[in-house]
Design a protein that fits this description.
By secondary structure, this protein is mainly beta. The protein is 0% helix and 48% strand. The protein is built from no helices and 11 strands. Strands 2, 4, 5, 6, 9, 10 and 11 form a 7-stranded mixed sheet that branches. It has a 4-stranded antiparallel sheet with strand order 1-3-8-7, with no helix packed on it. It is globular and about 40 Å long.
Length: 127
């Protein structure tokens, strides 16, 4: 399974960006994969940002992004999106999409529970 993330960039505080992650590969089945976004800054551990269940019925968010970020998925296009609004300087990080085919919901915020990762896309928010 390959995950290709894009959409990062440089934006001023208060602005918006939309990240996109496209999954491909013969073994990928959207109905089996919980999808998520994590982020990481140098010297820190990878941090959970948002995730969405296989059917798209449930979404989970880091407290500091609730009300500003929205995760969604299109299981026909094998795509997961992260709409980021009202961006803050502390949102600056490399953002990674991740997929978990065997993940249970109690582990949804744990990066070690995800099997497949995209290459990361840089988001920089200037204050």
């Amino acid at each position: 399974v390959q995950l290709q993330a894009c959409g990062g960039g440089l934006v001023q505080a208060g602005g918006s960006l939309r990240l996109s992650c496209v999954a491909s590969g013969g073994t990928f089945s959207p109905s089996r994969y919980v999808m998520a976004w994590f982020r990481q800054v140098p010297g820190k551990e990878r941090e959970f940002v948002a995730s969405i269940t296989r059917s798209g019925s449930w979404e989970y968010y880091l407290d500091s992004v609730k009300g500003r970020f929205t995760i969604s998925r299109d299981n026909v296009k094998n795509t997961v999106l992260l709409q980021m609004n009202s961006l803050k300087s502390e949102d600056t990080a490399v953002y990674y999409c991740a997929g978990g085919p065997r993940l249970i919901l109690s582990a949804i915020r744990n990066p070690h529970a995800y099997d497949d990762w995209g290459q990361g896309t840089q988001v920089t928010v200037s204050s």
